Amino acid sequence: MKLGVVMPVELGMADDPEAVLDFARAAESLGFDEISAVEHAVVIANTSSEYPYSPTGKSHLPDDCPLPDPLELLSFVAGATTRLGLATGVLVAPNHNPVVLAKRLATLDRLSGGRTRICLGIGWMREEIEACGGDFTRRGKATDEMIAVMRALWAGGSEGVDFEGEFTRFTGAYSFPKPFRQSGVPLYIGGHSKAAARRAGRLGEGFQPLGLAGDDLVAAVATMRSAAADSGRDPSEVALVLGHILPKMDESKAEWARSLGSDRILLSPSRRATTLDAVLDEMQACAQRMSLA
User: Helices 139-155 and 98-111: crossing angle, nearest 10°?
Assistant: First the structure.
C-alpha cells in the first residue's frame, strides 16, 4: 500500500520555502511515497459556485490563503528530494492550455526521474475557470480533449504530431523533452460525480474519488469500472486512490482500501493539527504505526 500526504495549505505555509521543504523532506525521510499539492489559480470572493466537499457549500480555506502553483511548487520540491513522488490533487484542467501543460508536465517528470503523478479535475468554481479563459459549461469536453492532446504530444516522434480537435488544432508539432516514462505522465481523474467516475474509466490511469465514502464511494468505483469495461479496457488496470486522515491510518484501513481494489491512500492532517510541527508529529506517528522506512 502506497501512502501519500496532502500538503497542509490550510496552515498558510505553502509560500514559505523553508516550511515547504521541512514538510517534503519529512515525508521522504519517514517513508511516505508522495506528497500532493492542490490548485486554485485564483479564488473569487463571494463566489456563487458551491464547494462540493463541504455541507455548507463553502470552502474551508480563507480567500487569501497562499496557494502556490502546484507544478512550480513540486518542481521546487523535486530539486530538494530524491525519491519522493510528486502529485496533484487536483490540477484544474480547464485552467490550462493543453499544449503548454504537456510541456510542463513532461519537463517535471523528466527532470525528477519519473516521480510525477497528475490528478486532473474539471473544477467547481465557475468564476475561477472563466477568469482563466475557460468555458465552465464545456469544461468536461475540454478536459477529455486535453488528455488526448497531451498524450499525442508525448507519444510523437521524428515525424511530428497532427491534431484536429474541437478546442485544439496543430500540424507537425514537436514537443521535447518527452516524459521520463515512455508511457507518459500518469494522468488520474479526480472528482465526486458520476461523470468523473466515467471519465476515469474511459481515459484515466487511475481514479481519485474526492469526498466520497460508504455506499457513494462503492457506487462511484463501480461506475468507473463499468465505464472502463464499456471502453474495452481492463477495469483492474485503472488504479484507485482513496483518502483518509493521518491519525486514523492503520493496517485495518489499508485492508479496507485493498478490499476496494486500491493500492494508494492519500492522507490529510487532522483538524487538530494547526501548526506544521503538529502535522509532522501526526506524520511520524503514522509512519511508525505503518512500519514505513
Answer: 50
Provide the number of structural domains found in the chain: 1
Provide the CATH number for the domain around residue 172.
Answer: 3.20.20.30
Grid coordinates representing 273? 493539527
pLDDT computed for residue 293 by the predictor: 78
Tell me the CB-side half-sphere exposure of residue 231, using CA atoms within 13 A.
Answer: 18
- State yes or no: cis peptide before 70, omega within 30 of 0: no
The pLDDT value given to residue 198? 98
Three cell numbers at 58? Answer: 463553502
Q: How many angstroms separate the first and last alpha carbons of the chain?
A: 13
Q: What is the CA radius of gyration of the chain?
A: 19
257, three cell numbers: 482500501
Q: Which amino acid is at 291?
A: S
What are the cell numbers at 184? 507518459
Instruction: Identify the segments of the chain with pLDDT beneath 50.
Output: none
Domain span at residue 238 reads 2-289
Residue 91 phi, psi dihedral angles, 5° rounding: -90, 125
Would you say 216 and 149 are in contact if contact means Cβ atoms under 8 Å apart?
A: no
Q: Residue 9: what pLDDT?
A: 98
Q: What is the pTM of this model?
A: 0.97
